[in-house]
Amino acid sequence: MNTATQNLENDHIYILRLCDVILKMVEKESTETDHFELVVQLIKNFADGLHHAKEEDLLFPLLGDKGFSKEQGPVAVMLHEHVQGRNFVHGVTEGIQAFKSGNSDSIQVIYENLSGYAHLLQAHIDKENNILFRMADDVLNDDEQKYLLSKFSTIEENAKPEFNLTNSIQNINKLAAIYLA
Question: Which domains are delineated in the chain?
Fold first, then answer.
């Protein structure tokens, strides 16, 4: 049976690929603001919008019903890291605006926040895949897994068309062809 955690781990494959792209953009010292803006949109709409919605709106509350605290423990850590990630994205967005307004020094703000985001997400995904999701698999029964998968499907179907799962993967692969080739 396909499980909710497998669905989330599949998203992680593409989010990690995006992190690889981000780190390569920084390493190559890209100044392509359209690429930075696409990365921000992919994070906001796919990684945070679609993927984190599945976790924060569905999985984590169900785990809360199973005794997982939002104040301490693995769910609390994941929620805190989601906020940290959003703060990095905010920093990237501000850096892009300043860079486009002629402040060439703000490229460092972009690089620092992109790097911070990518490193955070790499470690975050490792914790989810290897700790939290294994714990979830231990406490969720088949009906709960099916319920989550059904709700995940609804979230995916309601995503903005330009950043649905298929188009997000295509955009990540487009950037990967540029930066990881």
Answer: 4-179 (1.20.120.520)
